[in-house]
Amino acid sequence: MAKFKTSGVCAKEIIFEIENDIVKSVEFVGGCPGSLVGIKALVEGSHIDDIINKLKGINCGKRKTSCPDQLSKALAEYKVKTKTNE
């Protein structure tokens, strides 16, 4: 399990599990429940790179980020950390 503290969005944290570069689970702490349950359903079982590419740069209204964008940042950070630890 990995945790990521979000910035600039309603959700406060993202907790996720990766196995062989596939997102096995993702949970958002806080935020808009309907939208975040939808994101969870769409990304679980997908390759980490596909999720990063699809969600990176999505804004929420006038904010320069969104919960999907924060998830892409969390996964990109995870990739960097795991490659460093190999």
Automatic annotation (TrEMBL):
Keyword terms of this UniProt record: DNA synthesis, Nucleotide-binding
Gene Ontology MF annotations: nucleotide binding; ribonucleoside-diphosphate reductase activity, thioredoxin disulfide as acceptor
Domain of life: Bacteria
Annotated InterPro entries: CHP03905, TSCPD_dom
Enzyme class: oxidoreductase
EC number: 1.17.4.1
All residue ranges annotated as the TSCPD domain in the record: 5-78
GO biological process terms on file: DNA biosynthetic process
One Pfam match: TSCPD
Annotated catalysed reactions: a 2'-deoxyribonucleoside 5'-diphosphate + [thioredoxin]-disulfide + H2O = a ribonucleoside 5'-diphosphate + [thioredoxin]-dithiol
Family: Belongs to the ribonucleoside diphosphate reductase class-2 family.
NCBIfam families according to UniProt: TIGR03905_4_Cys
UniProt-recorded name of the protein: ribonucleoside-diphosphate reductase
Organism per entry: Alkalithermobacter thermoalcaliphilus JW-YL-7 = DSM 7308
